[in-house]
Write a structure and sequence with these properties.
The chain is an all-alpha fold and 101 residues long. Helix 1 packs antiparallel against helix 5. It is built from five helices and no strands. It has one domain.
């Protein structure tokens, strides 16, 4: 499992352990989070670059509306930082043989 996916799983676990998802996410945010969750379930290291751009659209929407508590903020920032590093590495060609380029 990739480092990004591990960090995303931590966010999901936190949301499941609290009622944060049910009480703080509006319907649009729930839809974006659900689609992002599906992307990570279907993820493999051979996905094309477009797959990551599609994920970015969901991140952008969630980032705009997410209200953080301290724990969620730490988990989300760690996850987004890992995703951003992954995107940079993909664009730089680092590990490109693993991601289908």
């Amino acid at each position: 499992m990739s480092e990004c996916k591990k960090k995303f799983v931590k966010v999901v676990k936190y949301l499941n352990e609290t009622d944060y998802y049910k009480t703080k996410f509006d319907d649009k945010m729930k839809e974006h989070f659900k689609l992002l969750h599906e992307k990570w379930r279907d993820w493999t290291e051979t996905k094309p670059m477009q797959y990551y751009y599609d994920m970015k659209e969901h991140h952008t929407h969630i980032n705009k509306k997410l209200e953080f508590d301290d724990k969620l903020e730490t988990l989300w920032v760690n996850y987004i930082s890992a995703v951003m590093n992954l995107r940079v590495n993909i664009l730089a060609g680092v590990g490109s043989e693993r991601i289908g380029h």
